[in-house]
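Per your request, structure below.
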C-alpha cells in the first residue's frame, strides 16, 4: 500500500476503482487522508447554523433518531457522549437522566462554545475539547454514546478507546447514516443529495458537506466494521435500522 494512503475496500462498490489508486477521482479526497480530517473541512464554520440545518435537511428525523438512541441508554450514573457537537444529543440525555453525570467531547471548539452557552445551573454536564481517537480520561463510564461519529473514525482505534473508558456491564451506542440497499430508496436518496448540492450553493459554509457527505456515506460500511470488532472484543451486539435503512444504531454491551 502506498505510504500515507488509507484503504477503503468498499470503494470498489462505489466506483469500481482500486481503493489505493491515486487516480480514483471519485474517492481520492477520502483516500489521501482519513475521513476524520474532513471534520474541519465540513464543520469549521457551521456551528451557529448546525442545529437548524440538521433538523431541516433530515426533515426532523434527527430528533427521532436521537430519541431512539436514548431509549437504549440504561439508567446509569455516568455517560460519555463522543462527538457531541453543539450538544443536541447531550442535552436530550440530560433531560431524560437529570441526575446522571454527562461528559461531552468534541474536536471542534466552535461547536463546544455553542453547547456551553446552553448550559444551565442544574445541568450535570461538562464539555471537553478532545479527539475521540486519542481521548485518555482518568475515569470510566457506564455508557458511551455518539451520533454521526462512526464514518469519520478508524473502527478498531475508536472501539479500543471506548472499551478503555467503559465500566463492566457498560454499553456503547453508536448512530450514523447508512447507504440504503433498496433500489428505489437508493434512487430517492441520490435525488435528495442532488437537491442538497443545489441548496448548498445558497449556503457557502455547507457546500462541502452537501457535496461530499454522500460519497463518505456510500464508502462507509461502519455498521459491519464496528459490529465485528465489538464481537471480537466480547461485546453483545444489536443493530437497529432506521428510516428505510438510511440510518442505523449499533449497540455493544460489555459483559460483566
Amino acid at each position: 500500500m502506498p505510504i500515507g494512503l488509507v484503504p477503503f475496500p468498499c470503494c470498489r462498490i462505489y466506483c469500481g476503482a482500486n481503493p489505493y489508486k491515486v487516480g480514483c477521482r471519485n474517492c481520492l479526497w477520502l483516500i489521501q487522508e482519513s475521513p476524520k480530517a474532513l471534520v474541519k473541512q465540513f464543520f469549521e464554520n457551521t456551528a451557529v447554523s448546525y442545529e437548524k440545518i440538521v433538523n431541516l435537511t433530515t426533515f426532523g428525523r434527527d430528533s427521532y433518531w436521537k430519541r431512539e438512541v436514548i431509549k437504549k441508554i440504561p439508567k446509569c450514573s455516568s455517560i460519555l457522549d463522543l462527538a457531541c457537537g453543539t450538544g443536541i444529543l447531550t442535552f436530550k440525555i440530560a433531560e431524560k437522566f437529570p441526575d446522571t453525570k454527562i461528559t461531552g467531547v468534541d474536536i471542534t471548539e466552535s461547536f463546544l462554545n455553542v453547547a456551553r452557552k446552553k448550559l444551565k445551573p442544574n445541568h450535570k454536564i461538562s464539555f471537553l475539547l478532545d479527539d475521540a481517537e486519542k481521548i485518555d480520561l482518568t475515569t470510566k463510564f457506564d455508557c458511551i454514546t455518539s451520533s454521526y461519529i462512526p464514518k469519520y473514525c478508524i473502527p478498531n482505534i475508536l472501539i479500543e478507546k471506548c472499551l478503555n473508558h467503559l465500566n463492566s456491564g457498560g454499553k456503547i451506542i453508536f448512530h450514523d447514516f447508512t447507504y440504503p440497499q433498496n433500489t428505489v430508496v437508493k434512487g430517492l436518496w441520490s435525488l435528495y443529495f442532488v437537491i442538497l448540492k443545489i441548496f448548498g450553493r445558497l449556503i457557502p459554509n455547507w457546500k462541502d458537506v452537501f457535496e461530499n457527505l454522500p460519497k463518505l456515506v456510500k464508502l462507509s460500511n461502519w455498521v459491519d466494521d464496528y459490529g465485528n470488532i465489538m464481537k471480537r472484543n466480547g461485546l453483545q451486539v444489536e443493530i437497529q435500522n432506521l428510516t428505510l435503512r438510511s440510518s442505523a444504531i449499533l449497540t455493544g454491551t460489555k459483559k460483566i
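Residues 1-24 have pLDDT under 50 and may be disordered.

Regards,
D.
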